[in-house]
């Protein structure tokens, strides 16, 4: 291996690692607020790519039917829960079912108008983000106070359900989206694609924006309070259900942004999200599902290991990446004090 090959592998690893970084941050956010290991995080990535690819092919994205299914089911759940209180029922529907319905209408309208690429991207991001409230309402809100193991089982079940719905509404064909830029830049004799630079810049901007959101906005402070002490946050007026719904909605938005970045780089299928999300999970585990900076660094490390492993042992690169989790878990098991869950 010479310097030029190592530079290309490092570039590829940093590009993938930046995307894994976003997913790792989303996983840490959801776990901190809800105690849910959010297994279906990768599905939002896959749905974004498949939705935008359908737009580019002048097809009606299957996201419309997925959103309608989620919205109608969430509305039925609210009716059954608040049938004796119409005002609370309507308020609950506005938070869980309405976003999916509005997003479905938006996707339908953008397709009918044959809108340009920018509107297609915006509609795709909003559509995938709108899945978050319905997913939380249907899957996690009813068991919000359950033990972590129960929440993990529910999370795995949601992953399989969304994967099945992805096959039903999108089909088994893979898709790839158009690159945002085809420019190539030479830095120090190394050619770097504009798409890779866009991934780095977008990841950095999104990480900084998340930091500012949690530090300066009321919603961000509410999420931090819930993550620090759920009971204390409830006592000062922060609804745990609202915090949980907002955290998964943000995770869906981060997944949508990651999908925009990964779509031009690799072909994505309805079930591709699991592997992508799992690599983000390895990075999150490095941070103990608690530290955002360490999780981000761990995710970039995962991307670099994957890239160099593909050069030395391409047939075993996935095995090498996922084997990283074993020494990390062993080290954390030996250094972390365990407490029985109340």
Structural write-up:
The protein is 75% helix and 2% strand. It is an all-alpha fold and 342 residues long. It has one domain. It has a two-stranded antiparallel ribbon with strand order 1-2. A hairpin with a 2-residue loop joins strand 1 (184-187) and strand 2. The protein is globular and about 70 Å long. The N and C termini lie far apart (53 Å).
Topology record:
Layout: H1 3-34, H2 41-56, H3 63-82, H4 86-96, H5 98-113, H6 117-140, H7 148-170, E1 184-187, E2 190-193, H8 194-216, H9 218-228, H10 230-235, H11 240-262, H12 273-286, H13 292-312, H14 317-323, H15 325-335
Antiparallel strand pairs: 1-2
Count of individual beta strands: 2
Sheet of most strands? 2 strands, antiparallel
The total count of helices amounts to 15
The chain-level mean pLDDT equals: 86
H/E series, N to C?
HHHHHHHEEHHHHHHHH
The figure for the number of domains is 1
Extract low-pLDDT stretches: none
**Ends: how far apart?**
53 Å
What structural class do helix, strand and pairing data support? mainly alpha
Gross morphology is: globular
Please estimate the helix content: over 70%
Beta-strand fraction estimate = under 5%
Spatial strand arrangement across the major sheet: 1-2
Radius of gyration: 20 Å
How would you describe this structure in keywords?
342 residues, mainly alpha, two-stranded antiparallel sheet, 15 helices
Short description:
Helix content is 75%, strand content 2%. The protein is mainly alpha-helical.
């Amino acid at each position: 291996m010479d310097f030029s090959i190592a530079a290309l592998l490092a570039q590829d690893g940093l590009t993938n690692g930046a995307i894994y970084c976003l997913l790792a941050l989303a996983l840490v956010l959801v776990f901190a607020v809800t105690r849910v290991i959010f297994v279906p995080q990768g599905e939002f990535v896959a749905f974004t790519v498949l939705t935008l690819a359908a737009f580019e092919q002048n097809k009606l994205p299957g996201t419309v039917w997925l959103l309608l299914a989620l919205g109608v089911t969430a509305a039925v759940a609210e009716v059954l829960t608040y049938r004796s209180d119409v005002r609370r029922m309507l308020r609950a529907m506005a938070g869980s079912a309405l976003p999916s319905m509005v997003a479905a209408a938006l996707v339908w309208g953008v397709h009918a108008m044959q809108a340009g690429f920018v509107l297609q991207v915006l509609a795709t991001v909003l559509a995938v983000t709108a899945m978050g409230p319905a997913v939380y309402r249907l899957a996690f809100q009813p068991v919000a106070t359950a033990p972590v193991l129960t929440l993990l089982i529910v999370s795995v079940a949601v992953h399989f359900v969304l994967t099945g719905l992805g096959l039903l509404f999108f089909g088994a064909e893979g898709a790839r989206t158009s690159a945002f830029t085809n420019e190539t830049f030479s830095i120090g004799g190394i050619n770097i694609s504009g798409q890779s630079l866009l991934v780095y810049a977008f990841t950095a901007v999104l990480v900084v924006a998340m930091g500012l959101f949690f530090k300066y906005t009321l919603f961000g402070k509410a999420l931090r309070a819930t993550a620090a002490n759920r009971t204390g946050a409830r006592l000062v007026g922060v609804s745990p259900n609202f915090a949980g719904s907002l955290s998964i909605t943000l995770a869906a938005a981060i997944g949508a942004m990651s999908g925009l970045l990964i779509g031009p780089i690799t072909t994505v299928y309805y079930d591709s999200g699991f592997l992508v999300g799992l690599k983000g999970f390895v990075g999150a585990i490095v941070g103990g599902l608690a530290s955002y900076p360490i999780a981000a660094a761990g995710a970039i490390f995962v991307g670099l290991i994957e890239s160099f492993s593909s050069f030395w042992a391409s047939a075993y690169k996935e095995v090498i990446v996922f084997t990283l989790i074993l020494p990390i878990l062993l080290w954390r098991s030996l250094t972390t004090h365990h407490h029985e869950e109340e």
